[in-house]
Write a structure and sequence with these properties.
The radius of gyration is 21 Å and the shape is elongated. The protein starts with 7 loop residues before the first helix and ends with a strand. It has a 10-stranded antiparallel β-sheet. A 5-stranded antiparallel β-sheet has the order 5-1-7-8-9, with helices on one face. Strands 14-13-12-16-20 form a 5-stranded antiparallel β-sheet. A hairpin with a 6-residue loop joins strand 12 (175-180) and strand 13 (187-193). By secondary structure, it is mainly beta. The protein is built from 6 helices and 20 strands.
Length: 279
């Protein structure tokens, strides 16, 4: 791959260098969190975390582990910058995002540090394109203080069953109501749209339910406009973990398998719109 032949002295200028033989392994997961133009990139020894926020009520995170990359070199403990995600995706797909077997776009992503652009070297079929994208001062991401020790209820579902639920529920509803309970209805999704009220129930013994851990009956409503972007992650995932804490904060964690069979994660946090009195 020509991209790997850059001189060592060039590499030494960068605080971050990340190589992928297939750029789609990055672009596909970034598309799953694209609901706003700008994203915060945080690189650590564990890999890349890309964060997008909306109205301080919703946060989407994509995690791309270091071992997904053919090379992942970091000169500092943490590198953080903000970038226009829409522009980045346009660059990653500059060769058309080919899905033809055996044809892929190789990516070399380099960053010199604060104030410098993110440089992308993209190569397909011997043709190399260089893109430089301006980086911005990163905003401080919201810390929702969602901790596994405070999780009240948790279910893990096969994604196909959640896709089916969303296709049957009325998406004209302003809110999605989620009920999680140790007793009936166990796990219920409800909408209140133009065509009336709709409920979609899962039994705790359902074949689609991989894990059911509900300690307390909770019913919370979440703005549909904040949750709709998460359906992009749902579309490419194979499993989804749905968790709520004592405050009703919702965590949707999607397990995504890339073109090479490697596992990445996308997580959405969403604040409850309003509490619902338990019946």
């Amino acid at each position: 791959m020509p991209l790997s032949t850059q001189s060592q002295s060039e590499d030494e200028q960068y605080v971050l260098v990340a190589n992928l033989d297939n750029a789609r392994n990055l672009s596909n997961i970034l598309k799953a969190i694209t609901c706003k133009d700008h994203a915060i990139f945080t690189a650590t020894a564990n890999g890349l975390k890309v964060t997008v926020e909306d109205c301080k009520c919703m946060q989407a995170n994509a995690f791309i582990q270091a071992d997904i990359f053919q090379e992942f070199t970091l000169k500092e403990d943490m590198v953080i910058f903000q970038i226009n995600l829409t522009v980045l995706l346009d660059c990653l797909n500059i060769f058309g995002g080919s899905t033809v077997a055996g044809v892929s776009t190789a990516l070399r992503m380099c960053y010199r540090g604060y104030g410098h652009p993110l440089t992308l070297f993209l190569e397909e079929g011997g043709v190399v394109t260089v893109c430089k994208i301006n980086t911005l001062e990163p905003e401080e991401p919201i810390d929702f203080e969602f901790s596994s020790s405070n999780v009240t209820n948790k279910v893990i579902l096969q994604s196909e069953s959640l896709k089916e639920a969303f296709s049957e529920l009325d998406m004209t509803s302003e809110v999605l109501q989620i009920t999680m309970s140790p007793s009936h209805p166990y796990f219920r999704l409800s909408t209140f749209g133009n065509s009336g009220n709709a409920h979609y129930d899962y039994s705790k013994d359902s074949d689609m339910m991989e894990l059911f851990q509900c300690n307390k009956t909770q019913t919370n409503r979440y703005k549909m406009s904040l949750l709709k972007p998460s359906t992009k992650a749902l579309a490419i995932s194979c499993k989804v973990s749905v968790r709520t804490d004592s405050r009703g904060l919702l965590s949707l964690q999607y397990l995504v398998q890339n073109d090479d069979g490697q596992i990445c994660f996308v997580e959405y946090f969403c604040c409850p719109d309003e509490e619902v009195e338990e019946e």
